[in-house]
Task: inverse folding
């Protein structure tokens, strides 16, 4: 349910809009106030109302749209407002976007989980259709004709019979006097009438990003600001014993040092890690000062963390029965039958290490604490989390934190965790000036919220034609839940439902289990989250079964998916499937769509004509995540030295309704590279609790010559509800790549990254 | 006192001669188009031209920059309309865009040396520049397009 309403100009809007502008707000936050969705303006309704979009129409025809999504490269902040403009019949060249500050009145601003379009598509259309109808009614009233005789067209309302027309701007004042239409009165455009949806408009940032004009968090400044560089405990959770800042203070430009308290309690959340900050008049002096600082830490219990030993313990965990989260049929009985009748079983273990986000722009923020309030500029995916985190750190109210959102130089989930903004705000309070905190690459890699290391065990019993008759999947990984409660030991429901409990195969007996694991570093979500390891384990294993059956992997995959159907997840043995928080009737687990993308990827890549030979192989994987269906065919060459090259990738993608095909393609092209980094080279390790990598030498990511040469993205035309685009390309890329390596070399890589395996 | 030219303008600097040019450009001149990415010459985000050669400004200290001509992304073309920048816009190369200043400066240096680079030339010249969003194939496409006078390129999107 959505609510559209004429709104008063509030503080932020007053700076942007003139007094005579028509201002429309819209809410996507479901609320239960009876009748409130039709635009009643009682006090109770207003209090419960959180508009996430503001549209201002000026008398000169300019439209100001407040865009509440952070821009980290997906195009979200440019693309989402297009939906409103299209439905409004506005001229896009008359639309100016303004980035929203953090404010709960916008509803969720958390740009994460590939949700910008799917969570806000309907409300954007409703806001556009409502405003359009108000403009049409205003024009009809002016001309004294029936509203049905007029029609909005490209920023004008036209009376077809008489040929009269009035510009949107000329109608703004009268439209503002119209009652906001009820939802039932709205007429939405048919897809054939879309003017911008489905077209690849340039993003508003396109030109700035090739001229150096884009303003990122690291570029933000405030008058009179100083710079900070922070020394933190090399072991997670360590406490400060003592520090000597004589040498640090002797560095020219260094003015003082400030202690930042260690995080407290069982809820780590986004609290700063704590440490000692060196304050200086330049970024360089602060860095030199920090290098000269002598600090002693009490490392604490995580000093025993050794990722090599941890790997062994996770693998031991998945060899034993664990907590079942999906139970379909009777896996044990089927395994027993297989054993009695001498039928074959197959089992395998998989491992994916910790990963760091490593966005090209490290986290950075500048903050000023003054008169009990904070003003900050930050490269954040989630400005409301900035408000909450800074407020909690300083003991002030969230509404007293003004968070300006800059461009983000990549995010991948790291920048929805605003510990660094709280550091800047705390330091500003101590120093009495605005403080800029710029994390170095070393800090970025050594103090991340790491993607969880994961171990998986899979076992299948093999029936007719090599098809599995039972499938057992076990995983163990330190959960993201540990970030919110340090006592958490099992995977959270949303993690288990990312490619593990929802294995979409036509196998009568399936059990998905999860074992306990304790975290020893901060754990966070990284682009595609738990899908990364689950997809790697599950779809590698399915490829193993295909080869075991001596069947073509595509043909085997289609046979294993079974007939087109929508899965009833309860009947599939999953008690409460979270489905990315969306109703299963709107976003089903649709085997037909999975099959379709497999067939499309196979067709477009010419799979049937291409046979893998030594040194040249093809691999496939299909995965549903973020409610989208993605199949990926990867071609690799492996030379005599074992060097892997990726001449081509074909991604067949079905994310439902899309807005901007070029930006969708770009996300999947990028996902192929991101997946390549994870599969081929990504690995974070720890010894004595200390992360062993610190820059792009120890933590390599794919470069030009290592990335796929050509990634072809094939978009399935669809009017299904919009799903995710930013993340779902990554999970299938990883097993498709290792499956291709198997096809080319006969080496099954079960232990990532690939670079640790000698391929020839 | 160190003197140098930045985008054609003479500049004087009397601070720490060991400070990397990167921080001089960003902190002292507020030319923030040149980006910090690693501080170790591993990622290429800070690439500028020093006497026409692509260098990593995080590895070039002020002493080394003394007496040199420095060109940054801001100085590449007065209207940001260098053929490489045009090609970048036409191909919608940037996603987050953070690394693109460095990519463009590196690509310009390549094209000056090799006006018609092959894919292998591009691999060699661009392998020092990381793009975490994974825009490499469009970077390659844009370099080829710029080399061909931006004629052969099919423009993606458009107003």
Result:
């Amino acid at each position: 349910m959505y609510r559209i309403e004429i709104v008063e100009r509030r503080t932020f809007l007053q700076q942007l809009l003139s007094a005579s502008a028509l201002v429309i707000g819209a809410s996507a936050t479901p609320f239960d106030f009876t009748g409130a969705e039709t635009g009643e303006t009682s006090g109770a309704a207003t209090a419960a109302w959180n508009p996430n979009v503001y549209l201002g129409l000026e008398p000169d025809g300019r439209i100001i749209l407040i865009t509440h999504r952070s821009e980290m490269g997906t195009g979200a902040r440019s693309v989402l407002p297009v939906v409103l403009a299209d439905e409004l019949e506005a001229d896009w060249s008359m639309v100016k976007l303004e980035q929203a500050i953090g404010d709960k009145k916008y509803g969720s601003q958390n740009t994460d989980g590939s949700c910008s379009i799917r969570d806000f598509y309907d409300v954007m259309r409703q806001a556009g259709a409502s405003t359009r109808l108000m403009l049409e009614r205003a024009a009809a009233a002016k001309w004294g004709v029936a509203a049905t005789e007029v029609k909005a067209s490209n920023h004008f309302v036209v009376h077809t019979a008489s040929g009269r027309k009035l510009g949107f701007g000329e109608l703004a004042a009268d439209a503002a006097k119209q009652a906001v239409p009820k939802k039932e009165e709205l007429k939405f455009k048919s897809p054939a009438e879309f003017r911008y949806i489905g077209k690849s408009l340039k993003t508003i940032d396109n030109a700035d990003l090739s001229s150096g004009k884009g303003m990122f968090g690291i570029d933000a400044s405030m008058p009179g600001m100083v710079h900070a560089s922070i020394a933190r405990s090399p072991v997670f959770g360590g406490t400060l014993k003592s520090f000597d800042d004589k040498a640090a203070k002797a560095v020219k430009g260094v003015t003082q040092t400030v202690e930042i308290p260690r995080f407290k309690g069982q809820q780590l959340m986004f609290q700063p890690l704590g440490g000692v900050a060196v304050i200086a008049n330049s970024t360089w002096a602060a860095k030199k000062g920090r290098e000269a600082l002598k600090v002693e830490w009490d490392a604490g219990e995580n000093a025993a963390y050794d990722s090599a030993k941890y790997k062994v313990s996770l693998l031991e965990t998945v060899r034993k029965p664990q907590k079942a989260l999906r139970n379909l049929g009777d896996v044990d009985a089927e395994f027993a039958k297989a054993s009695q009748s001498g039928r074959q079983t197959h089992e395998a273990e998989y491992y994916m290490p910790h990963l760091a986000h490593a966005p090209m722009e490290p986290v950075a923020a500048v903050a000023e604490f003054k008169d009990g309030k904070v003003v900050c500029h930050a490269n954040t995916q989630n400005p409301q989390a900035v408000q909450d985190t800074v407020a909690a750190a300083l003991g002030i109210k969230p509404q007293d934190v003004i968070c300006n959102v800059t461009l983000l130089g990549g995010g991948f989930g790291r920048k929805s965790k605003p510990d660094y903004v709280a550091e800047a705000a705390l330091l500003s309070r101590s120093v009495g000036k605005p403080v800029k905190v710029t994390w170095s690459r070393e800090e970025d890699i050594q103090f991340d919220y790491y993607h969880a290391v994961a171990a998986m065990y899979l076992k299948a019993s093999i029936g007719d034609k090599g098809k599995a008759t039972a499938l057992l999947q076990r995983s163990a990984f330190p959960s993201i839940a540990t970030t919110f409660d340090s006592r958490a030991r099992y995977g959270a429901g949303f993690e288990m439902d990312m490619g593990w409990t929802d294995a979409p195969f036509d196998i009568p007996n399936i059990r998905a289990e999860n074992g306990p694991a304790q975290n020893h570093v901060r754990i966070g979500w990284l682009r595609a989250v738990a899908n990364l390891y689950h997809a790697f384990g599950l779809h590698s294993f399915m490829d193993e079964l295909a080869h075991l059956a001596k069947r073509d992997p595509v043909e085997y995959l289609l046979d294993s998916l079974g007939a087109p159907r929508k899965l009833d997840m309860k009947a599939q043995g999953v008690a409460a499937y979270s489905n990315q928080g969306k109703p299963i009737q709107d976003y089903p687990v649709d085997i037909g769509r999975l099959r379709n993308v497999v067939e499309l990827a196979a067709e477009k890549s010419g799979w049937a004509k291409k046979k893998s030979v030594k040194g040249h192989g093809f691999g496939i994987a299909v995965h549903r995540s973020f409610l989208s269906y993605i199949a990926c065919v990867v071609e690799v060459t492996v030379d005599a030295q074992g060097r892997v090259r990726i001449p081509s990738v074909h991604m067949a993608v079905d994310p439902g309704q899309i807005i901007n095909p070029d930006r969708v393609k770009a996300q999947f092209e990028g996902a192929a590279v991101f997946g390549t980094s994870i599969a081929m080279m990504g690995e974070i390790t720890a010894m004595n609790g200390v992360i062993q990598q610190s820059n792009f030498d120890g933590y390599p990511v794919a470069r030009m010559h290592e990335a796929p040469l050509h990634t072809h993205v094939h978009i399935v035309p669809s009017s299904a509800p919009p799903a995710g685009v930013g993340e779902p390309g990554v999970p299938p890329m990883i097993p498709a790549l290792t499956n291709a390596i198997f096809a080319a070399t006969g080496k099954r890589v079960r232990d990532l990254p690939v670079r640790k395996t000698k391929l020839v | 006192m160190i003197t140098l030219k930045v985008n054609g303008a003479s500049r004087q600097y009397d601070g720490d001669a060991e400070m990397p040019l990167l921080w001089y450009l960003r902190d002292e001149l507020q030319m923030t188009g040149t980006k910090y990415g690693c501080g170790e010459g591993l990622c290429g985000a800070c690439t500028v031209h020093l006497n026409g050669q692509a260098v990593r400004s995080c590895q070039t200290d002020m002493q080394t920059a003394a007496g040199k001509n420095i060109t940054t992304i801001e100085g590449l073309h007065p209207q940001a309309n260098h053929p490489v920048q045009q090609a970048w816009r036409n191909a919608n190369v940037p996603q987050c865009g953070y690394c693109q200043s460095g990519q463009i400066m590196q690509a310009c240096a390549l094209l000056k040396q090799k006006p018609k680079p092959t894919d292998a030339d591009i691999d060699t010249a661009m392998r020092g520049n990381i793009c975490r969003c994974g825009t490499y194939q469009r970077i390659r496409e844009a370099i080829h397009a710029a080399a061909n006078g931006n004629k052969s390129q099919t423009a993606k999107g458009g107003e």
